[in-house]
Specification:
Subcellular location: Cell membrane
InterPro entries: Bacterial_PTS_Sugar_Transport (IPR050864), PTS_EIIC_2 (IPR013014)
Number of domains: 2
Organism: Breznakia pachnodae
Low-confidence stretches: 1-11
Protein name: Fructose-specific PTS system IIC-like component
Membrane topology: Multi-pass membrane protein
Helix content: 55-70%
Order of helices and strands: HHHHHHEEHHHHHHHH
Number of strands: 2
Mean pLDDT: 84
Structural class: mainly alpha
Radius of gyration: 29 Å
Strand order of the largest sheet: 1-2
Number of helices: 14
């Protein structure tokens, strides 16, 4: 068949089937909670370096006086210097310890403002960053309110809204700046005025009024109620919180439930309401327990209960646990979730409760071994991890051994 001129120019023959172009399906829109969770995690991920830097520097302020110099834990650095017992090089060590205490504490103080700044930035862009930072700063150090006391006006500091207030103000500041940037139209010549003065000033004033009249009173009330509730519940409330937090931390080894639990625990810890002891113990217990199971199974039930490839993985999981990483336990959980997950959850709960009941206290949100000097009552902390790991190992070994005896589990261990 002859090819027409038009067909030759276009490159198509008359009988060539032309495929109909299809437009790709637009990506599904995320829900409100999923979107906010992304912004929250952005704030948390950018806040963590300040916590780590502050924690590492604070570690010097604890190790120097209370480990190297052997000062009693109930004696402050300044009191130790004024005691006259330390001179020369030792006194210089105490000076350095006090410097690291102050500087590390300052870095910790920047954690919540930076969280709010980066969360607001994630929502509204870089113009929202300053407003978020200001709001986060006011969440930790709220402006005083003037009250009439005894016939005189006196300034009083309200209860800080802290983490709760930082979340609220970050969302408000982010979306406010986003709306202002979209709504305010100016000529090209006035663009610098809009971005460097007008929007930042409007955002700062809005944050000031919103924090003073709404967020600080609301967040402070919530924090006050939480503290009163925990004080009223006493040790029962503390243990209940420990059980819930350790179970949620351990269940999915760094997954969404773990991150949600970490978000709640981080809020309580940075607010000074509750320590984060249960979480840091529960992070490491599953991996250490499963690694321990690969070491002692032969001695406990006279056989290996894992496939041979899991034995080097067990050692790796233990090493990662001491680095504060729980994901080393994931291969074990994927291989037999019905046995592994309940076992290490029970172990995490047992270990956390043991550590808390014995008096271990950790305020710094890091489970790696280099953060152990910041723990109050380290022996109790170590015992808690040991108990939790042992419970996990024993449960896993006996459960898998029972399955092997029943014939429902076959392992290639070269026994």
């Amino acid at each position: 068949m002859a090819v027409t001129k038009r067909a030759a120019i276009s490159g198509n023959t008359p009988n060539k089937t032309v495929k109909k172009e299809t437009t790709p399906n637009p990506p599904a829109k995320k829900g409100i909670w999923a979107t906010l969770s992304k912004h929250v995690m952005t704030g948390i991920s950018n806040m963590i370096p300040f916590l780590i830097m502050g924690g590492l520097i604070l570690a010097f302020s604890q190790i120097i006086p209370y480990v190297i110099l052997g000062i009693s834990p109930d004696v402050g650095i300044i009191d130790a210097m004024n005691s006259g017992k330390f001179t020369g090089f030792n006194q210089e060590l105490l000076r350095f310890a006090y410097l690291t205490q102050e500087f590390g504490g300052t870095l910790f103080g920047f954690a919540i403002p930076m969280f709010a700044a980066f969360m607001a930035n994630s929502i509204g862009g870089k113009l929202a960053f300053p407003a978020g930072f200001i709001g986060g700063l006011m969440a930790t150090s709220p402006t005083s309110v003037i009250n009439l006391v005894g016939g005189e006006y006196v300034p009083e500091s309200p209860v800080a809204s802290t983490f709760i207030g930082a979340i609220i103000v970050a969302i408000a500041a982010g979306y406010l700046v986003k709306w202002l940037n979209k709504t305010i139209k100016v000529s090209h010549n006035m663009l610098a005025f809009k971005t460097t003065f007008l929007i930042p000033m409007l955002a700062a004033l809005s944050v000031m009024l919103g924090m003073h009249y709404i967020v600080t009173p609301f967040g402070g009330l919530i924090n006050d109620l939480i503290k009163q509730g925990l004080e009223a519940a006493g040790s029962v409330g503390s243990i209940g919180y420990t059980i819930a937090l350790s179970a949620a931390t351990a269940i999915d080894l760094g997954g969404p439930i773990n991150k949600a639990a970490g978000f709640v625990a981080l809020g309580f810890t940075t607010d000074g309401v509750l320590p984060i002891t249960a979480r840091v113990v529960a992070i490491v217990v599953p991996s250490i327990g499963l690694g321990l199971a690969t070491i002692i199974d032969k001695y406990v039930v006279k056989r290996h209960v894992f496939d041979k490839q899991f034995y080097p993985q067990g050692k790796t999981a233990m090493f990662l646990a001491f680095m504060g990483i729980s994901e080393g336990a994931i291969p074990f959980a994927l291989e037999n979730p019905k046995i592994i997950i309940p076992s290490y959850m029970i172990g995490a709960i047992t270990g956390s409760c043991t550590a808390v009941l014995l008096g271990a206290v950790q305020w710094f949100p890091e489970s790696a071994i280099w953060a152990w000097p910041l723990i109050e009552n380290i022996p109790s902390y170590v015992i808690g991890i040991g108990v939790g790991a042992l419970v996990t190992a024993i449960l896993v070994i006996f459960a898998r051994n029972a399955m092997i005896k029943k014939g429902t589990l076959v392992v290639d261990s070269n026994d």
